[in-house]
Design goal:
- 5% of the residues lie in helices and 48% in strands.
- The chain is mainly β.
- It has a single domain (7-136), classed as Jelly Rolls (Sandwich), CATH 2.60.120.
- The strands form three sheets. The chain has a five-stranded antiparallel beta sheet with strand order 1-9-6-11-4, with no helix packed on it. Strands 8-7-10-5-12 form a five-stranded antiparallel beta sheet.
- The chain starts with 6 loop residues before the first strand and ends in a 13-residue tail after the last strand.
- 24% of the residues are buried.
């Protein structure tokens, strides 16, 4: 069953005399069609906001740290400027996935230079491009306050 709110998945760890298994068995990836990586050489770069009325995304940091922000969009043609954005800080060390369902806009900011984030999408590229809405990075969140 799809989530209707953003959900953070932490790794499940099993240890015994043979070693360690870390997994994300509760994360269902069956509906996802593609994955890609984004690297931000600078911590000054803000990639925001991309709104997805129908597309779901999952984010996983593979190197460094990222602030991944999200906001539920009330109207994709004319969203309110007073929406409440939230963010999670994801790190490669913490090994977490952040699921952001359809109906949200998301944004990214690297907190360490040369950080890389992997993104999973349940839409093919041409589908994503045709349904994505872009909004000003200055809406909903003070990116400079995130360290």
């Amino acid at each position: 069953m799809p989530h209707i709110t953003p959900t953070l998945y932490s790794e499940e760890i099993f240890r015994d005399h043979r070693g360690i298994i870390s997994s994300f068995n509760s994360l269902d990836l069956s509906s996802f069609k593609r994955t890609y990586f984004i690297t931000h050489p600078s911590t000054e770069t803000i990639r925001a906001w991309q709104g997805h009325q129908f597309e779901t995304k999952i984010f996983k940091v593979t190197q460094g740290r990222f602030a991944v922000a999200f906001v539920k969009i009330d109207d994709f043609e004319n969203p309110s400027k007073n929406l409440n954005a939230e963010y999670k800080i994801l790190t490669a060390v913490n090994n977490e996935f952040l699921y952001i369902p359809k109906g949200f806009a998301n944004g990214l900011k690297a907190l360490d230079a040369n950080s890389t984030i992997q993104v999973y999408s349940d839409f093919y590229l041409d589908e994503s491009i045709n349904e994505k809405k872009r909004f000003s990075p200055n809406m909903w969140l003070d990116w400079n306050a995130i360290k």
